[in-house]
């Protein structure tokens, strides 16, 4: 079974995280659009009938009770020319044509669901996310209640891995000092940064400091069992997916917290306006 949970503690309230998350997603989308190797189309004006069709086609039955056609949905399509891009390292093969990825996302805050798939190679990645204000004693609690799981998955999902934003990712080529929480400060939240390098900073917060956790559950599905994936290549693919997703989550949350002064005074309305403006420029 290909199932993995990551937990990302953040020194924010749930509302602050929501704001920072939306801002960071916009900034990373801008970065993607600045490369000539990636073309992105975005669809969010999707009819309820079409949303229902996608739900029935893409989601396992256990998730269809969590996501319905009334929930906001977005569809992004990526056309990748440069398949060396870090975001797509989990494809351990080299296609002769441009790589096409479809991303479907549903926002039912504080629960979100994302599906990333490449139909050509029968790969579908399902990511369930749940966000929660916590105390330190709650960081190790069983999170299975947050996710839609079958009985087999509940038995399998015993462990998780914490992604610690005070650590530096193993790939030194991707290190950015302006996205290192241990080497940046915040003028608007002076008690927040810097974090002490390579420590469990979340265990040393004072009682009046905020703490929340982003839970990420990743699942791999091979759509066509008759595809070219063998047990060996399946294992390699899964290992590559986990490495890439961990890197993405690590960088995303470091970028979010280090840029807190740029988004902490914004409102969700400000963020939605920026997002809509960017999406309109793509269409």
Automatic annotation (TrEMBL):
The organism's place on the tree of life at top rank: Eukaryota
Coiled-coil ranges from the UniProt annotation: none
Organism: Adineta steineri
Residue ranges of every copy of the Phosphatidylinositol transfer protein N-terminal domain listed in the record: 1-278
InterPro entries to which the protein is assigned, alphabetical: PI_transfer (IPR001666), PI_transfer_N (IPR055261), START-like_dom_sf (IPR023393)
The protein's name: Phosphatidylinositol transfer protein N-terminal domain-containing protein
GO terms for MF: phospholipid transporter activity
């Amino acid at each position: 079974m290909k199932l993995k949970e990551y937990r990302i503690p953040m020194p924010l309230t749930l509302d602050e995280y929501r704001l920072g998350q939306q801002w960071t997603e916009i900034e990373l989308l801008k970065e993607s659009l600045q490369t000539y190797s990636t073309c992105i189309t975005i669809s969010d004006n999707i009819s309820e009938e079409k949303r229902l069709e996608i739900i029935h086609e893409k989601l396992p039955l256990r998730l269809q009770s969590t996501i319905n056609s009334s929930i906001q949905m977005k569809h992004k399509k990526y056309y990748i020319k440069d398949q060396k891009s870090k975001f797509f390292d989990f494809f351990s093969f080299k296609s002769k044509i441009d790589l096409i990825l479809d991303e479907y996302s549903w926002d039912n805050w504080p629960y979100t669901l994302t599906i990333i798939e490449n139909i050509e190679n029968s790969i579908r990645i399902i990511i369930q996310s749940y966000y929660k204000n916590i105390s330190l004693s709650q960081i190790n609690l069983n999170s299975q209640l947050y996710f839609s799981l079958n009985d087999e998955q509940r038995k399998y999902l015993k462990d998780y891995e914490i992604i610690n934003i005070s650590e530096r990712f193993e790939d030194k080529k991707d290190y950015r000092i302006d996205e290192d929480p241990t080497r940046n400060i915040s003028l608007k939240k002076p008690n927040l940064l810097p974090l002490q390098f390579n420590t469990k900073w979340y265990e040393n917060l004072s009682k009046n400091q905020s703490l929340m956790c982003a839970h990420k559950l990743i699942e791999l599905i091979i759509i066509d069992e008759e595809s070219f994936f063998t047990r060996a290549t399946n294992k390699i693919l899964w290992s590559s997916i986990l490495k890439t997703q961990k890197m993405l989550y690590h960088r995303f949350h470091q970028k979010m917290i280090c840029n807190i002064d740029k988004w902490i005074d914004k409102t969700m309305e400000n963020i939605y306006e920026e997002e809509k403006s960017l999406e309109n420029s793509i269409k």
